[in-house]
Amino acid sequence: MVAYNSILLISQMTPSVFTALALLAPLLTSGSTVRSAAHVHRRANGPPADFTLVGVAPTNTVLSFRLALTQSNPAGLEEALYNVSMPSSLAYKKYLDKAEAARFVSPSADTLSAVNSWLQAQNIHAATLTPAGDWLGINVSVSRANDLFDAEFGVYNHTRTGLQTIRTLSYTIPEELVGHMTLVYPTTTFPEFNSMISLSLRPAIPRRAEASKTLVAASCAEAIIPSCLQSLYSIPTTPATQSSNQFGVTGFFDEYANQADLQTFLGTYRPDMSNSTTFSFESVDGGINPQNASDAGGEANIDTQYTVGLATDVPTIFISVGQSSGGAWGGFLDVINYLLSQDSPPQVLTTSYAGNEDELPFSFADNLCNAYAQLGARGVSILFASGDGGVSGWQAGTCDTFVPVFPATCPFVTAVGATEGINPETGGYFSSGGFSNFWATPSYQKSAVSTYLSHLGDTYSGLYNASGRGFPDVSAQGLNFEIVYEQDFYSAAGTSCSTPTFASVIALLNDELVAAGEPSLGFLNPWLYSSAASAFNDITTGSNPGCNTTGFNATAGWDPITGLGTPDYIKLRAAAGL
Predict the structure, then answer these.
(1) Can you give the residue ranges of the Peptidase S53 domain (predicted)?
(2) Residue 496 among the catalytic residues
(3) Is 31 annotated as a binding residue?
C-alpha cells in the first residue's frame, strides 16, 4: 500500500511543502458522521495545468486539515495597525502586545460554539494552532474527509516532476458553519513544487572590497558587493549595538544557509567584520539547517550573506521552515503563526519567496494578510520580494492579463522591487509589479497610485485592476550580486537580492532608534508614503515586460516597477527622526 505523509505523499519527496503536524491533535475516528444540510464552500473547474488525476485516494490515508474560523474584528485590526503606523497619529509607535493584537482576530463566542458543536458531533478532536484561536488543526482519513466535506479526494500527479499529492476539486461545509468557518485548507489548493523560487545563479570572479568607495561605486555596473550598496545607498558600516534589535530571515524548500560560505563571503567582501560573525537558527515545522557544503542553498545564502553582510552586527536569525504542511502557503502561515506566538518577535522579517495571487483562494490570502497585520501592529516590519516575472507575475510565463504577486500585494507588508545599473539606476526588466485583484488601493498610497494612473492613461486598460493595491512599494539593486555558494563565487539576480538589501537598511535604522530609546519603525508603508517619501532615489527609467507587452514603465514618483525608488540611508535616517 502506498503511504501518504499527511496531506501530501510523494514517492520522491522534494522540498516543496511544509507541515505543522506536530501541533495537530489526533482524530478520534470512532463514531459515525452526523449529517446536516451542506453548503458548497469551494469548487474548482479542474486541477492546475501541471496536475493530472491518477485515481481515487486510498481510503485509509490520514490527511491533515486546517480550519480557518471567521475572525471577529479584522476591520478593527486594520484600524489599530494604522493608528500605530501613521506618523500623524497620536498613537504612532505605541505598539500592541501579543494579546491585544490577537483579540481582533479571535473568533466570536457564536463562532466557537458553532464550530465546537460540529466537532463534538463528529467525535473530532482539534488542536488550536494560533494564539488567537482562529486556526484549528484536525487529522482525518480520506474516507472520513470525503464524508465530512462531501468531497472526492484523489491522487494527482505533477507532470513536470512526477510528484503526487492528494486533493479534491470541491468540498462543502454544514450550513450551520457558514459565516463561522472561512476555509478548509488545503483541500482544493494544490502544492507549488518549487515554483516560488526564481533566483538565478552563474559563476563569477570575486571582486574584493576596495578602499575607495568611489572606485567601488564605479564597478557596481558590473558586479554588486556590499561596498557597492553601501556607497550607492549611503548605508553605514558602523556596527550595530543593540542586541534587542533582531532581524529575521525566512527559508523554505529545503534551502539551507551555510555558515562556511558566509565566513568566506565576509572575509572577501567585509574584511572589516569578523569572519566568524554568523546568524542564529530557529526551526518551524521541523525545519533544519545542515552544514554540509552540498546542502548549501543559493537562495538561503544570498538572504543571509546580504543581511549579515549589510546590517553590520544586527543579530540575525535564519528561520528554516520544514516540509509537508499542505503546500508552501501552509509554510508561510506556519512561520507567521510561530512569530505571533512569541512575546518579542524580530523587528524586521525579510522573505524572498512568493507566488502568484491567483494560486490560492482569497479566504486564505486574507487570513494570512491579517496575520501580517497583527505582527505589524506589534512593531514588526515585514518585507517581501515583488517577484521576477515583470507583469507576468512571480516568474515569467504566458498570460492574457497581468498577474499580481502575493504576499507582495497584501497591503500590510512592504513589497520590494528591483533595479539595475548605475548612472542612471533603472528599473529591473524582471521586477514584478502591478495591482492586486484581491485588495483595493490602501489609503496610504492612493495619491501616489492616482498620479501614476493619470500618467498611464488608457494604456493596458482591462489588463490590470486599476483600483487595486499597487506594488512594489520600494526597490533596490537586484542584478549581478556576488555571493558564495558551496565555497565558489557566483553572480545572483532577482528581487531575492533587492529584498534583503532594503530590509538591512531598516534593521540598521531600528538599531539607531533603539539606541536612542525610541521604538522600531514597525509597519513601514504609511511612513514610507508620507514622512519618508522624499528620502528615495527616484527611478524614472525602465519597464517590466510580460504578457506580450512591454509592461509598466518607471516614471517620476511611485511606479509599479520600482515603487517609491531606492533608499537613501541618510535621508531615511532624518525621516525617522534620528
Answers:
(1) 223-578
(2) yes
(3) no
